[in-house]
Amino acid sequence: MRSVAFIIAASLVMLSAFSAAHAQSAIIPAKLDKPFELKTGQQAVIDSEKIAISFLNVTEDSRCPSDVVCIWQGQASIRVSAEVNGTDAGQFVLTIGANEKPSAVFGDGKYSVRMASLEPYPVSTNQTEPEDYVATLVVSKAAANSARVYVKAVASSSGSNNVAAISGWNLQNEKGTLVILSRDSIITTKMAIARFTPTEAQCKSPDARECIDGHIVDSRGLEGDVLHFEVLPGDKLYLAAGGSEYTLDIRQIKARP
Question: From which domain of life does this come (predicted)?
Fold first, then answer.
């Protein structure tokens, strides 16, 4: 009887382990432009585009614990792999936090994958195991971005609080600069400056030519951590910066592939 009981108990343990492993490696259905969650080792499939995204592992989690005061916010990085039409499209490291680079382009530049969040957030009293991590990802069709862009744009309104923006970015060198000039009276002009890391971004407008997120590394007079640029039809520039949104008239633009 003891032998039978032992065999049954062992079988239940093996079955439980198999079920857990199977759940961890399950295929998750996903849709384009919609956030989806993956645990370590899981794969999401977007049938409409024949895309598969796998969450391989966490390469770094140095984020400041929520119950600790730190002088550096830290960052979290994960490694993901992509397939298109059953063909390997590469592996990418996505990073959020201090040195953000949350997006990567794959499929000959046709698609982008972005990490929106990584849970759980660190707590000093808890150690997060690799299998406990859950990444929220978004896959989108990438805009046909130019490698280098320089743009000047101004507000079309002739009223008060006029705004002008001058910006340039280089995707290859991962460098960008934005200058915003705002005038709230005839004699008072304010200037804000930000240096940022440009990355391919999801477009808000389906007609946009250039869609870029700028992850601010240094700024003066500008709040927030992220900028967003879109070059729109009709020579318009959409800019989200410092908690404000602007649609400006482009006066000059230079773009190189």
Answer: Archaea
The pTM score is 0.57
- The whole-angstrom separation of Cα 13 and Cα 7 is 10
Residues in the chain: 257
210 vs 142: CA distance, rounded Å: 9
CA distance to 19, 169, 180, 195, 250, per residue, from 151 (Å): 55, 9, 12, 15, 7
Question: Each residue of 3-22: pLDDT tens digit?
Answer: 544 444 444 444 444 444 44
- Residue 14 has phi, psi (to 5 degrees) of -65, -40
C-beta of residue 80 within 8 angstroms of C-beta of residue 95: no
Tokens 């966490």 locate to: 58
pLDDT above 90 covers a percentage of the chain that reads 51
